[in-house]
Design goal:
- The complex is a heterodimer.
- In chain A, α1 packs across α3 (38-50), α1 (5-19) packs across α6 and α2 crosses α3.
- Chain A is built from 6 helices and 2 strands.
- Helix content of chain A is 56%, strand content 6%.
- The radius of gyration of chain A is 18 Å and the shape is elongated.
- The longest helix of chain A has 23 residues, at 99-121.
- The longest helix of chain B has 15 residues, at 90-104.
- Helix content of chain B is 32%, strand content 21%.
- Chain B is an alpha+beta fold.
- Chain B is globular and about 65 Å long.
- Chain B has a 5-stranded mixed beta sheet with strand order 1-2-3-4-5, with helices on both faces.
- The chains are: A mainly alpha, B alpha+beta.
């Protein structure tokens, strides 16, 4: 499974903010760390702010900070803001569908279901533990 | 945190019914007979968390040997925490007690099986360090037998 660039940037950012929830982190700091333009990242952070995952802090030392509950926010909650991982095309009800199409669609749906279950079961708090373990 | 007693069973049944919405007394009677007083060396555990006189959580696990070729490993197949006292570390302590027992029994792996939409319990096990196992659960519908021709 491959996530889109913006989704990955959102996940990196959420993990950065959640690791130090009291700190206001400038977007430029995260952009530099992950080698992306601050302008590009700003769009991602704005989306996260709209979803209530982070909040922007104005003024000196401003930036963004974590605004969610790390023990409740799941990877799916973040990913779902940026892409639909149930990407299997479903044919219209009245449309003629070949049996092979139906069978392939069934298998792809199974894979999507497992991916959704995995993303929905891993909270940001759990991810932070995994990050620490991987380090 | 202690081993279950016969007098706890009504509260265990009530807690399960609260969480699942289904009362299954005969099932729990059978579970109690099998796991409630397992002989020494049987490697089955039915643990309860108690606050005062109230059972506020329970966990059941065992060692399964060579199931589908797998070396002996621990299984946890039931865990419930009273919704009023969640987020207090009770599930973590119950699971920790099972892991201690498994460790003492020489078992080094713990597994469980959950519905993919049971995100609450899935998240709990994930938070305890569980990852996907190298096995895939499968199921199929057992079709009704075709009607016999007269």
């Amino acid at each position: 499974m491959k996530l889109q660039v913006n989704t990955l940037l959102a996940l990196y950012s959420v993990l950065e903010f959640a690791a130090d929830p009291q700190r206001h982190i400038p977007a430029s700091e995260i952009a530099a760390k992950y080698g992306v333009s601050a302008h590009h990242l700003a769009k991602v952070l704005a989306e996260l702010a709209r979803a209530g995952v982070v909040e922007s802090v104005r003024g000196v030392g401003g930036g963004y900070r974590f605004a969610a509950n790390a023990k409740r926010l799941t990877l799916m909650d973040v990913i779902g803001q940026f892409e639909d991982i149930s990407s299997v095309p479903h044919r219209g009800a009245g449309e003629a569908v070949a049996p092979a199409d139906r069978a392939i669609s069934q298998v792809l749906s199974e894979i999507d279901q497992i991916a959704r279950a995995t993303f929905s079961s891993i909270t940001i708090a759990t991810m932070l533990k995994l990050v620490q373990k991987a380090g | 945190m202690r081993a279950v007693r016969r007098a706890d069973l009504d509260q265990v049944i009530a807690l399960d019914a609260t969480v699942t919405g289904v009362e299954k007394r005969s099932y729990w009677e059978r579970v109690y007979r099998r796991y409630g007083h397992a002989p020494r060396g049987e490697q089955r555990w039915f643990l309860v968390a108690v606050a005062g006189r109230d059972v506020v959580g329970f966990l059941i696990g065992e060692v399964r040997d060579w199931e589908f070729g797998s070396p002996p490993c621990g299984w946890v197949f039931a865990i419930d925490i009273d919704p009023r006292v969640r987020q207090a570390g009770i599930g973590t302590r119950l699971l920790g007690a099972l892991c201690d027992a498994l460790r003492a029994a020489g078992v080094r792996q713990l597994r469980t099986l959950l519905a993919s939409d049971n995100t609450l319990i899935l998240s709990f096990f994930r938070s305890q360090g569980m990852m996907a196992a190298p096995m895939i659960p499968l199921e199929m519908d057992v079709q009704p037998a075709p009607r016999a021709r007269r």
